[in-house]
């Protein structure tokens, strides 16, 4: 029996790759192990099932399957065939595919037959998940290695939004905002950044920046300089000086007109441009600038577009702040100066003092061995006006002024406005070329076609030559004062350049220039919202600059809209929504806006003089200031004894030591230098009678409102307080 038990028993499975399995271990008492060997065919080599004592197999009954055979066939079919190419030295048997549930392994043949040492190993679910995760990570790593960043050439205009920059770089806008946030700059996709900031961002993201230039503008300038008929042009003269020194009056005298009578308050509010003929039929173009302090930008613009500056100084006033400012603008623009000493007919003139004072600013008269032309004139008496014209022509001869009289025109916008009947109208000074009717043009961020041209006399003309100021009609919107004007080949070119200027170089808000710009408004100042509608661009610009110069630590003006044209319904609605002050400067509201303002109870303030607007703004800002409380001590009393009164409770028997004590006035109780109570005197008694006041030296009984804790030697101090409105 021992030999039978120890005798090696094998089970042969015939498949394409058959294996011989040692089944001697299936005996309950014997060694439990499998041995596998290959055969060439798949057939059953067992004839039967082992009996309990013999260790041999007998042939199973038909229709019944041996459990062991069933198990082995399943495993051989499912697992062993799939691994035929693996080394045969491996003898461990895997029951199932790793993806199947590991719980199925509990109902195996080995357990059913008490086979304990079958070398079967199955992977756990955690092991399978780890393998899958590892495989996924390796795939992602490979994908990242394969993805190579594309370096783009990014075109950068003068100004660009973060959204547009992200589109041009093909980068997420969130990444750009995060980058700016790391630089302590808070921005959104709608914020506009300048070209330097944009260039830095593009480089940091690994792209190549290309700075854009305005298409066609430089080409036009060079073409006019190099080509065309070059000949002498009239000089452009700007009249500058202090307010009320007679600039406009002098220009009136030169033109034989009366412009100053049409100016509100006798102060020039706009830039005026005119042409004057001399006795020799030579033309001089004059530009009149305002002298008020608020019009600094307009004076600066006037000095840049001029050839010669006439500095008007009143003979009786001398050098004033705007006089000095005009000198600085002229020197910055490198423009020669002719000094016109006006009001020489007055008895209190002091011409020598003026010449001496101007020497400080390097304006030395010819009689003082200098090279600056001085002309003594009188606008009212019209004296020495011809001498002034001769001085201008002499200076222009020295400058040798010339321009192209052919080819497309270029110029500068002096002033712009919105006319009720004509629409957007701009005054343009032609610098080169010939401007013709029906020409296509661009002007800053606007464009259009010349529908009509009007000269300084109000006549309609078809052509405009260099140094000629003309009003042009045909713009799609109001132009910005100081913008460059140029004629283009066609409408598409004009639109292209205007669109570029609008997106790239036009005046914008919310420009991120540095880190501080986004945090300037983060304070606790109260704001006065203001809406300004003006007749012309220059006045709107001057008002805005003057208002923004008003500074106070507690309040500040906030201009939410500054535009030109008539006050309309949208302006009134905006004023209502924002609780803003609505100001009209040389403009009136239309009928619809008037009705809406009455319905909404919106007051519209109208002005013709700029300093009156500034006074209104200062009053409005003063109203936002907290009033100042002023206290005045009217009397004091010392408590001598405390009495109990049935009706009044405790009453302080006191003696007035200073001033007087009044009934119902404010008072404080002071004990050992500390204020114990601050309230109101409810009643005053003298000899059991209620009185209104008690003067110095008299005794009385005093009771307080809601206070009875009196003590001897306490001091009662009566006072009056009043609120005083503060002014800026």
Key features?
Rossmann fold, about 725 residues, 6 domains, Arc Repressor Mutant, subunit A, six-stranded antiparallel β-barrel, alpha+beta
Question: Can you put this structure into words, describing what you see?
Answer:
The chain has 728 residues and is an alpha+beta fold. It folds into 6 domains: 2-112, no CATH class; 153-211, Arc Repressor Mutant, subunit A; 233-401, 3-Layer(aba) Sandwich (Rossmann fold); 410-504, Translation factors (Elongation Factor Tu (Ef-tu), domain 3); 522-624, Translation initiation factor IF- 2, domain 3 (Rossmann fold), CATH 3.40.50; 628-724, Translation factors (Elongation Factor Tu (Ef-tu), domain 3, Beta Barrel). The protein is built from 18 helices and 37 strands. The strands form 9 sheets. The chain has a 6-stranded mixed sheet with strand order 10-11-9-12-13-14, sandwiched between helices. Strands 16-17-23-20-19-24 form a 6-stranded antiparallel β-barrel. A 6-stranded antiparallel β-barrel has the order 30-31-36-33-32-37.
